[in-house]
Amino acid sequence: MILAPSRAVRVFAYPAPADLRKGYDGLYGLVQAGLKTDPLGGDLFLFVNESRTLCKVLLWDGSGLCIFMKRLERGRFAKLWRDDDQAVRLTQSELALFLEGSTLLDRRSLSPLPIERKALVSDRAM
């Protein structure tokens, strides 16, 4: 399942268990107060309940807020909570694996490293 049409869309996991009885306004408030981010910026925001059997993704599609919700019938979602209260950044591929119930073990970057610009040395200078 693809929730975002572009690889440029960022995915942030809320760094603590969330009360998933919250709807649009409650999750909007968690993004603003807890993540210090604009919920209408086009990013995806992932929330997981304490038992890690439910999750919600909040997203702005350009015309309104959307909530995607999933409940696992067996097993638990991966634990993405951190002790420093910083949001966990995920790629869209990692979000898809998370929603399928993967434990996201051994995270490795598949993207190439950024190109580092260096000054060219003239052949005559050597």
Please give a quick description of this structure.
The protein is an alpha+beta fold and 126 residues long. The protein is built from two helices and five strands, in the order βαββββα.
Structure description:
By secondary structure, the chain is an alpha+beta fold. The chain has one domain (11-104). Helices cover 16% and strands 20% of the residues. A five-stranded mixed beta sheet has the order 4-3-2-1-5. Strand 3 (54-60) and strand 4 (65-71) form a beta hairpin.
Mean of pLDDT = 84
For the record, give the distance between the C-alpha atoms at the N and C termini, rounded to a whole number.
56 Å
* String of helices and strands: EHEEEEH
Count of spatially separate domains: 1
Multimeric state? single chain
Beta percentage is 15-25%
Key words describing this protein structure:
2 helices; 5 strands; elongated; single chain; alpha+beta; 126 residues
Q: Topology, pairings included?
A:
Layout: E1 11-13, H1 24-35, E2 44-48, E3 54-60, E4 65-71, E5 88-90, H2 92-99
Parallel strand pairs: 1-2
Antiparallel strand pairs: 1-5, 2-3, 3-4
